C-alpha cells in the first residue's frame, strides 16, 4: 500500500531539506512548492493526500493559500510556521488548517502529526454508510442515529449541549477545533466570543468521559486556541 502523497510548501531551503529528507527516509511520496501560487497549482493538479504548509511565503500569505484550497478541497493541511502567537494559530485553523506545528520542530513530532492525519483519513475512507452512524474511539461509542453516547458500554447522561460538543469533536477527530469554530457550530454566531461558557460546558463533559483532569484520554486542550479529540489506539 502506497504511503500518502504529501505536498511540502516551504521557501526556506534548510527547512525544506529537513522535511523532504524525513519524508524520503520514511518512504513518503512528496511534491515541493516554493511559493503560494505554485502550491495551489500543485494541489489542484496532483490532489495530494496531505499538505505541509509554511505561512510566510514570498508571494501570498499561507492563510490565503488555505482559504483558496478550502474553496474546493478538504485535503488535510498541517501548518508548519515560525509564527507562534495564538492569533496566528487561530487564523490558520479558522481558515481551514487541520493542525499547527511551530518552528523549530522535531522530526518525531512531525511524523506523529502525520500519523494522526493518516488515521483520520483511514477512518473516513473505511466508513461505510451503515457504519457512519456509529462512532467508536476506544471505550467511547456514539450512536448518532439514536442520539446516545456510551462509555464502557454504559450510557452517558449528557445534557444537549454536552452531546452536541461530543459529536462535533468526534466528527473532527484528530483535528484542532478553535473556540470560534466550536461556538459558532454549537450556538451560532452570537456566541462567537463566549469562550468562558464553552470552557464550563467542556469541563462538565470531561468529568463524564475522562478518568481524571490530569490524564485526558479523549479531549485535548490547546491553550488559547481550542480543543481536539484524540484518537485512542
TrEMBL record:
The UniProt entry, under InterPro entries, shows: CheY-like_superfamily, OmpR/PhoB-type_DNA-bd, Sig_transdc_resp-reg_receiver, WalR-like, WH-like_DNA-bd_sf
Q: Which Gene3D superfamilies match?
A: 3.40.50.2300, 6.10.250.690, Winged helix-like DNA-binding domain superfamily/Winged helix DNA-binding domain
Modified sites of kind 4-aspartylphosphate:
54
Entries under SUPFAM superfamilies matching the protein? CheY-like (SSF52172)
Give the record's keywords alphabetically: DNA-binding, Phosphoprotein, Transcription, Transcription regulation
Pfam families on file: Response_reg, Trans_reg_C
Q: Which residues form the Response regulatory domain?
A: 5-118
Q: Where is the signal peptide?
A: none
Please state every residue range assigned to the domain named OmpR/PhoB-type: 132-231
Record feature DNA-binding region, as residue ranges: 132-231
Source superkingdom: Bacteria
Q: What does this protein do?
A: May play the central regulatory role in sporulation. It may be an element of the effector pathway responsible for the activation of sporulation genes in response to nutritional stress. Spo0A may act in concert with spo0H (a sigma factor) to control the expression of some genes that are critical to the sporulation process.
Q: What protein name is recorded for this chain?
A: Stage 0 sporulation protein A homolog
Q: Which organism is it from?
A: Blautia caecimuris
